[in-house]
Amino acid sequence: MKLVLVDGSGFIFRAFHAIPDMQRDDGVHVNAVFGFCNMLARLLKDHTGTHLAVIFDAGRKTFRDRIYGQYKAHRPPPPPELVPQFALIREATKAFGVPAIELEDWEADDLIAAYAKAAREEGGEVVIVSSDKDLMQLLRDGVEMLDPMKNTPIGLEEVAKKFGVTPDKVIEVQALIGDSVDNVPGVPGIGPKGAAALIDEYGTLEKVLEAAPSMKPSKRRESLIDHAEAARLSKQLVTLRDDAPLPVPVNELGVKAWDAAVLRAFLVENNFRSIRHRLGLEDGVAEEAVEVEHSNAPFGPYKPIYKLEELREIAATARETGLLALSVQTDNPNGLHGNLVGLGVATKPGQGAYLPLKHHVTLDAEPQLPWDEAAEVLNAIFTDVAVLKIFHDAKFSLEALHRAGLATVAPLDDAMLISYAQDAGNFAQDLATLARVHLSHSVKSADDVTGMGRNRVNFAEAPVEKATAYAGEAADVVLRLWGQLKPALRVHKSLALYELLEKKLIPVLAEMEAAGVLVDKDDLSAMSAEFERRMGAFEKQIHKLAGHEFNVGSPKQLGEVLFEEMKLSGGKKGKTGAWGTDSSVLETLAEQGEEIAARVMDWRQLSKLKSTYADALVGQIDPKTGRVHTNFQMAATTTGRLSSTDPNLQNIPIRTEEGGRIRKAFIAAPGHSLVSADYSQIELRLLAHVADIPALKESFANGEDIHARTASEVFGVPMKDMDSATRRRAKAINFGIIYGISAFGLGRQLGISAGEAKSYIDAYFKRYPEIRAYMDNTKEQARTDGFVLTPFGRRCWVPRIKDKIPALRAYAERQAINAPLQGGAADIIKRAMVKLPKALKEAGLNAKLLLQVHDELLFEAPDDEVKAAAKLAQDVMQNAVTLSVPLVVETGIGKNWGKAH
């Protein structure tokens, strides 16, 4: 007999906090249920015993509460999002055909202890699936523990690390140190190290207490004497009762096959499509990929590669399997300029390894492979068309490999983008999150290798053993994720989006990042001084209005000035007792005519622009190239839009004087000019297309002023008599509708009452009923599916569309309305970006694509080619897709971005 006992109650809380929020169709949160099902499915595949049960707590009150009334008294109630998941997890257990066991008045830990004892008495072996420290006391010959999140065993080493003693002494140590979580008193002032030392010296708790009076005078001696009874009580509380009754006899816990229909129905009801695919309960999953994911190999241990023959063996295995997963490690993991330090590699699940290449190891350490020898083997496998190279964030990895002088990698896949193509907005796409969601596995952090805070070292300085555990695991996880996620692309109709758009964009963005853009240092310095001068002028106005000087940049001082000294209305204090002074507070005050609030907003905007651009850009110039190289994030947004960091160029104001001033600092190289190509009103055009609005489609087809046309249609003013104020109202509605603007929001924007703004919106919908239908249908689709689709099939998930909190639900509805439009615009410009490098090359033009900012592309071209480059960019962008309305691209040329924009 091999009995596997799952600590169901313990896992629920870990899964709830580890896995991002998920909701099913009716709004019930199911992230803990999802994690539990993932864990149980993997357990049945990888760690099948002859007998299996999941053990739960039956209730919060047990016999321990009668022993000590304050037992677990400090524990807060479970989060409301978790409460419905308790019952669902019990349903899940039954759907998998596994006994779900609980017993009133007893904790799950006691039942686990009792079942473990019963199984051992019958000569069986026991595996306890839990990471709960309280269960470590049960470890002994024939009784093991397995961490369900990390999928790693817990043995004597882990117990010693936690308690400083062997499992048979854990109870004694726990009695001394107590447990603040469960409100077990223990002995004040005695921690794990002190407790372990006492038990090592005296053997048991009772002997420690007996010896206390004869110990040297100290606070510890006094505490042991004064709290002896508390320690004895604590030992009662922490000791697991292996004499607990067994609700189901151990011999009736034999593993049974699940009922496929029952399990499939449960998984469908809870929207757990990835688990269905993995278990073969839905069509469309390739068997060869499932074999990768279904491997019963544990995560690690992983080994370093120090011999050339070992590297050649891995390359040979990669050629056999046709797969090589890689985890690229650099000495600057957050930037574009890091140097390659080593490679995590995996050809089969569980067989990860690490190739250290540039670690600064000591002389007595194992020597790393000579670079030339390692590079020869790597280049051969990187260029082998029969081996698919798999990354997580391939763009970052390829850039690091290129900087190291290694060969171009092909063919390749990117697990991050595979996930993003079908799950944008559902959860983050970092490796740790994907491992938790899809593999129920917690990966090591880079901090485990480099340390934290003052003790942090560069990755190249880190011990190879730690780097191996981290990078080998990362490559292993990437391989398993690919095995699970790649087949689902076809099922979710996301294969073309990934293969033809996201993956093809990788080299395009890598070239843009490598090219960078020139900035004018002197102009940035002048801009910084200009912003500083204007901030000083605003400060003087603010101080005059306040009646005295104060630190405008201090929210605390500003709050005191506004709401205590000036007695302005609408102030609210936060948890810290300080007055709130965020942008919404200041905007409200400014709308009420409070000039000081308006001036503070002006000051803050300049301050942010000064620090983010005028000052920071100088420090971000690469000394080797003299250019700024932004880092494009391919999987950061819900809608498919790119974002950028270091520097973030997406947040430069578009229509303000300051935004134009910042763009002037981005310049062309000598003999070159910049070309800006910007889609005109692309989201409004998409709205006319997807909502099928004849009047707007006609207007776009005729090249009319869309805002004037809208004003004419809604307000009944002939276009020839249109005044700027009426057109401005129509423009605000046109753009506001895209973002699901409310009457309050529109009123605030136009400086009118919410009632008057509502009358505008009502008139708008009356004239364009197709827009109302589009909005209602889109929200309904989001509620039904959990996601909305762009016109080109991209899934944009809207997790809070059924949230019980009205404000969050309303925000999610606005997201749902806008996502197909913003996401559609992102899809269009990405298609153009994929086509442009080839088109420029075929035209014999030397123009380079430098930047993408929302609906705009920025090129650098030789002066004698600049007009041809602008015309070609316009043609490619306008013909990137075919819609029922024309796409229009406006181009500009200049020696700086400001003039070109």
UniProtKB/TrEMBL annotation:
Reactions catalysed: DNA(n) + a 2'-deoxyribonucleoside 5'-triphosphate = DNA(n+1) + diphosphate
Keywords: DNA damage, DNA repair, DNA replication, DNA-binding, DNA-directed DNA polymerase, Exonuclease, Hydrolase, Nuclease, Nucleotidyltransferase, Transferase
Name this polypeptide is given: DNA polymerase I
Function: In addition to polymerase activity, this DNA polymerase exhibits 3'-5' and 5'-3' exonuclease activity.
3'-5' exonuclease domain ranges (all copies): 302-490
Record-stated family: Belongs to the DNA polymerase type-A family.
Gene Ontology MF: a single term: DNA binding
Record keyword Ribonucleoprotein present: no
InterPro entries the record matches: 3'-5'_exonuclease_dom, 5-3_exonucl_a-hlix_arch_N, 5-3_exonuclease, 5-3_exonuclease_C_sf, DNA-dir_DNA_pol_A_CS, DNA-dir_DNA_pol_A_palm_dom, DNA/RNA_pol_sf, DNA_polI_H3TH
The EC number(s) this enzyme carries: 2.7.7.7
